[in-house]
Amino acid sequence: MVSEDMGMHYEGFCIRPPSEAFSILLQVTVGCSHNKCTFCGTYKSKRFRIKEWDIVYQDILFASRYMKNQNRLFLMDGDALIIPQRKIVPLFDTINKHLPWLERIGTYANAKSLRKKTLNDLKLLREKKLGIIYLGVESGDDYVLKNINKGSHFSEYVELAKKVKEAGIKLSVTVLLGIGGKDRSLEHAKRTGELLTKMDPDYVGALTLMLIPGTPLYEDFENGKFQLPDKYGMLVELREMLKATELSSGLFTSNHASNYLPLKVKFPEQKKQAIEMIDKALRGDIGLKPEWMRAL
């Protein structure tokens, strides 16, 4: 038996969305069930598994004693939603029993985990405070999605988004500037904007691709098979993506540490203003973040 007074039990390198910075971080899975994306090195050192219930339970008890000022909880690692419904429902019940003050539970998901959850499954989790799902889409270009081994495609992402939204859960989508390379840059940007329009998520986070040594995409870069757009190419891509995106009331941001130009765009009213700001940056009227300040 593990004592709940020993602190939270985290295994390996753990990540969470920027918006979950002040949330209770509960690691219920280790790694990513997909773990095949060519650009991602986050979970390469972890073999995916669902964590032992005893350890998760002790972490919940620890949070119940020492984290009473935090009203949100985020489930880690890469896609906690992959936990089968028969196991994830008792997990949510236990969380809500011991942390009744929580206002929202969030989690990463991927196409595989969302594919396995029915609409009724998601509605039930929504009743148990699952308030937001973070989905890494990366691109709306099926050619790019196939090349980076995302395991999904344009039309499926549209259907998955519809299911999440119909369940009453907020959807936050991540896309990657530069993931199409120089050759596919504008097509990637345009198709991604079109996908975002059809998905109509509550939030969009545009990150800029940073190549990670040891990943297949980095090897392609080293061998000359993949060319990364320069900082101005990334801005042109962002402009094209925004131009092709129509959200009913969402928030589009590019304020991640990896981005050259931080933007926070409320749709639809601030779209034109954001494109004008990108144009100023392309003309050199606005400075860009220097390379040494960029990070994952």
* CATH class designation: Alpha Beta
Q: Choose one word for the global shape.
A: globular
Termini gap? 36 Å
Beta content: 15-25%
- Nearest-integer average pLDDT: 94
Order of helices and strands: EEEHEHEHHEHHEHEHHEEH
> Based on the structure given, which CATH architecture is correct?
Alpha-Beta Barrel
Low-confidence stretches: none
Helical content stands at 25-40%
The number of distinct structural domains comes to: 1
Sheet with the most strands, sense and barrel status: 8 strands, mixed
CATH topology: TIM Barrel
Structural class: alpha/beta
User: Strand order within the widest sheet?
Assistant: 1-4-5-6-7-8-9-10
Number of helices: 10
The strand count comes to: 10
Gyration radius, rounded: 19 Å
Name given to the CATH homologous superfamily? Aldolase class I
General description of the model:
The protein has an eight-stranded mixed β-sheet with strand order 1-4-5-6-7-8-9-10. Strands 2-3 form a two-stranded antiparallel ribbon. It has helices spanning 53-66, 85-98, 111-116, 119-127, 142-147, 154-166, 181-199, 216-222, 231-244, 271-283, and strands spanning 24-27, 29-30, 49-50, 72-76, 104-109, 130-138, 170-177, 203-208, 251-253, 264-266. It has 296 residues and is α/β, with parallel strands linked by helices. 39% of the residues lie in helices and 16% in strands. It is globular, with a radius of gyration of 19 Å. The protein has one domain: Aldolase class I (TIM Barrel, Alpha-Beta Barrel).
Give a quick set of tags describing it:
296 residues; alpha/beta; TIM Barrel; 8-stranded mixed beta sheet; two-stranded antiparallel ribbon; 10 helices; 10 strands; 39% helix; 16% strand; globular
